[in-house]
Amino acid sequence: MEMEMAEEIEEVGALTDGFHLVIDALKLNDIKTIFNVPGIPITDLGRYMQAAGMRVLSFRHEQNAGYAAAIAGFLTKKPGICLTVSAPGFLNGLTALAHATTNCFPMILISGSSEREIVDLQQGDYEEMDQLAIAKPLCKAAYRVLHAEDIGIGIARSIRAAVSGRPGGVYLDLPAAVIGQVMDARAGADSLVKVVDAAPRQLPDPQSVARALDVLKGAERPLIILGKGAAYAQADDAIRTFVETSGIPYLPMSMAKGLLPDTHPQSAGAARSLVLKESDVVLLIGVRLNWLLSHGKGKAWGNAPKKFVQVDIEPTEMDSNVEIAAPVVGDIGSCVQALLDGMGKDWAPPPSQWTAAIKDKVETNVTRMAPRLQNNNVPMDYHGALGALRTIIKERPDAILVNEGANTLDFARSIIDMYQPRKRLDVGTWGVMGVGMGTAIAAAVETGKPVLAIEGDSAFGFSGMEIETICRYKLPVCVVVFNNGGIYRGTDVNPAGGPDVATTVFVKDARYDKMMEAFGGVGVHVTSPDELSRAVNAAMDCGEPTLVNAVIDEKAGTESGRIGNLNPQSVVAKK
Ligand code: OXT
Ligand code: ADP
Ligand code: MG
What we know:
By secondary structure, the chain is an alpha/beta fold. Strand 2, helix 3 and strand 3 form a beta-alpha-beta unit. Helix content is about 40%, strand content about 15%. It folds into 3 domains: about 1-190, Rossmann fold (3-Layer(aba) Sandwich); about 205-360, 3-Layer(aba) Sandwich (Rossmann fold), CATH 3.40.50.1220; about 375-550, Thiamin diphosphate (ThDP)-binding fold, Pyr/PP domains (Rossmann fold, 3-Layer(aba) Sandwich), CATH 3.40.50.970. Helix 17 crosses helix 18 (about 405-415). It binds ligand OXT, adenosine-5'-diphosphate and magnesium ion. The site of adenosine-5'-diphosphate has 24 residues, from helix 12.
């Protein structure tokens, strides 16, 4: 009796603190991986997280930790967590938070911050900054916790905001004082919140489904466009069944490649220009009519009048660029299933004239490209090098392909066929350079699959230091740097002459492979597609961190890859 009493008193007197409440709240919600850079005031938080069995991956720069968290969110449908120190660390993480929001990836940036009383009076605290105010316009939601007993609610709100509706980035501000705050352990445990049904299904209105089917039935040249929202939704079977049952040709956006294999007979990926121009009804599934689709109008879309059907979870996406004849608002899994259920037995496949014209164009483009992919030229051009890597992905379809650059990105997108969903991860909506290593690390950590990162030499430079992180955690990542000695090309010259090289040019004959060797990884230098193929296959077989320095003809690229048209032109100056 006396003993029981003593235990009870001890329990009543037990204490917890902000550190442990953060950990308990995350674990309660099944979040066990953290991407961070340690420092004041969160160093011990990382240590306690690790002690509590969480996977805490430390990066060399917060931006890369943030990109890792963003793509972890895309791959898992749970918010990826990036943990940073105050002001400079927070700002370093902010680009990734904005990127996550722009791309509709669920992510939470948790940053320690300085003393509120001092920050608000602008009295010059250590790393003083009003982080909440700065984060707000760049994310979907931003919260600050001021009392330890609110940590549970703060984390619950952050999780729900990140994954419900249209996913996005959330900022959670944790002042140092709160992290250290002590409270009664029982009250602390009671303050935690397990988020129930964080991203509830959103069933479409049956009338909207009927309207959409009506519009689709009236089509003579229908087209489905699949975007990365469709990949995110993880409704792979429903999407594939819908596409195949409807018989409608489909065009995958970059990160939707592989939802159905690119070799699928209904794929119009290799007839992109034709289908955009000639289609009369376009069904958009998890894709916005933004710059990547020329805003749904203009030259790229031709003169044929179009009707759009759009499936999206975000109601305000409808009519954002052009009129949407049939909006279907809801989650993709539910919407696509409802469309499938409503199709009925009398569903007629699209006219064969249309599907035959597309098949023809696909065959022409594929046949035209094929011989270029076989070349074994030295120095390599993009086609020769990517032809070799295309075979590797064909033979290893469950590997994850990370891709950034300009020419390196654009050629790889059309040359390398994808066979499985969510295997192609790239620069996303902003075309941002620097996502490469963070993305590769998160992909390896979250999926356990081998990763092949195909990087322009400029793109790689934005996050290259993270190869130390790859070596430190012994991740099965093979980085191939397409080394053409510059941005777009290595041949530009300084128009004024003088000692400085052109703005787009790097050091000649750089050996990125040596960087990998410095950290104990495997570095290989290759100059031909055959050598490239051997080096990457060896890396993928052994799973050791590898960097292949692939020398690409410095003349082979074009300005801005496939989007040179977006560069403004001066009428008064010559380059
Ligand atoms: O139908 P048609 O006939 O038209 O043909 C199309 C398809 O049908 C066909 N196709 C095929 N044919 C045969 N077989 C197959 N399998 C097949 N598949 C397709 O091929 C064509 C083309 O198809 P695609 O690609 O689907 O269509 P298209 O017309 O290109 O699509 C349009 C777009 C807009 C959807 C597409 O182009 C796209 O997705 N583009 C994204 C572009 C992008 O995001 N680029 C990155 C940004 S560029 C620039 O800004 C860079 N910066 C500045 C910078 C950035 N970005 N970020 C930061 C933080 N700071 C600065 C920098 C610094 S790039 C860059 C570095 C570049 O240098 P690197 O060294 O890294 O790279 P290199 O250039 O290699 O040197
Ligand atoms: P892409 O870059 O491939 O063209 P976007 O990023 O432009 O694709 O579009 C993705 C769209 O998918 C966004 O409008 C987003 O609201 C939507 N989306 C994301 N997840 C879901 C989901 N589960 N259900 C419905 N729509 C979704
Ligand atoms: Mg380059």
